[in-house]
């Protein structure tokens, strides 16, 4: 009674080695391409902020470039910054816009890095608020002004913390098309851009500022639809 013997295909070691070497080479090329082609601030095209903003009831008084430090690294890079001035009766309003690339979108870091308008000793109150259809924003008041600050995201609602910003990015950016672009080095995996907006409302020293928080909350609802297309456009 004979015994069955298994039949094995001969292994071509040279062919296996060649395939392994080819895969290793392709992987190395892909890794190098990803590092070399990964978009950075130097590859960004100029994203012009709007020439003007529309705020019903407020008289525009012009715009001026907002000074900002030259980036020393690839993070929190400001591409452009502008201040838009408005006035109404006895009140004045400054709208500061900063187009920021490769950021974690933290309001506390933003305030520390870019010359905060308020100092702790003059801070009267501060609170984070949320509004349906808009998102999160920070309101604060000093002895001289009432300030609203938030980050307009490429996709999703406005945010003021790293956690809120990351939640938006994970929800909207992790899709097959963007992941493929990231693997090919044509875009970042997460779209870490932010249009930081700061509204600074002021009234004469002898006038009450009680109405300013509500006015600024209404103004951010007017401005966000105007500015969202700016940050949604691809900068490359």
Question: In words, what does this structure look like?
Answer:
The chain contains five helices and seven strands. It is an alpha+beta fold. The protein has a seven-stranded antiparallel sheet, covered by helices on one side. Strand 5 and strand 6 (146-152) form a beta hairpin. It is elongated.
Keywords:
disordered N terminus; seven-stranded antiparallel sheet; single chain; elongated; alpha+beta
Summarize the entry for a quick read.
Helices cover 31% and strands 27% of the residues. It is built from five helices and seven strands.
Topology readout:
Layout lengths: L12 H25 L21 E7 L11 E12 L2 E11 L5 H7 L9 E9 L3 E8 L3 E7 L9 H12 L2 H8 L9 E10 L9 H21 L4
Strand/helix succession: HEEEHEEEHHEH
Distance between the termini: 75 Å
Main-sheet strand order equals 1-2-3-7-6-5-4
Annotation field: number of helices? 5
**Cα radius of gyration in angstroms:** 26 Å
Count of distinct strands: 7
Uncertain segments are: 1-6, 26-38
Q: State the share of residues found in helices, binned by percent.
A: 25-40%
In terms of quaternary structure, what is this?
single chain
Main pleated-sheet profile: 7 strands, antiparallel
């Amino acid at each position: 009674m004979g015994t069955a013997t298994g039949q094995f295909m001969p292994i071509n070691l040279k062919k296996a080695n060649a395939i392994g070497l080819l895969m290793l080479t392709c992987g190395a090329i892909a890794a190098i391409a990803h590092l070399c082609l990964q978009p950075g601030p130097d590859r960004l095209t100029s994203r012009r902020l709007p020439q003007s903003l529309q705020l019903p009831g407020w008289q525009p008084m012009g715009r001026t470039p907002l000074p900002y430090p030259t980036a020393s690294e690839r993070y929190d890079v400001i591409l452009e910054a502008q201040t838009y001035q408005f006035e109404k009766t006895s009140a004045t309003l400054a709208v500061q816009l900063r187009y920021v690339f490769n950021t974690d979108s933290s309001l506390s870091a933003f305030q520390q890095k870019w010359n905060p308008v308020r100092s702790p000793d003059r801070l009267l109150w501060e609170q984070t608020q949320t509004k349906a259809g808009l998102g999160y924003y920070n309101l604060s008041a000093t002895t001289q002004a009432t300030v609203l600050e938030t980050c307009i995201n490429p996709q999703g609602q406005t945010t003021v913390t790293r956690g809120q910003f990351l939640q938006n990015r994970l929800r909207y950016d992790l899709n097959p098309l963007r992941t493929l672009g990231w693997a090919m080095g044509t875009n970042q995996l997460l779209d870490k851009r932010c249009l930081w907006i700061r509204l600074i409302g002021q009234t004469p020293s002898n006038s009450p500022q009680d109405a300013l928080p509500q006015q600024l909350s209404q103004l951010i609802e007017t401005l966000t639809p105007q500015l969202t297309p700016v940050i949604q456009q691809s900068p490359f």
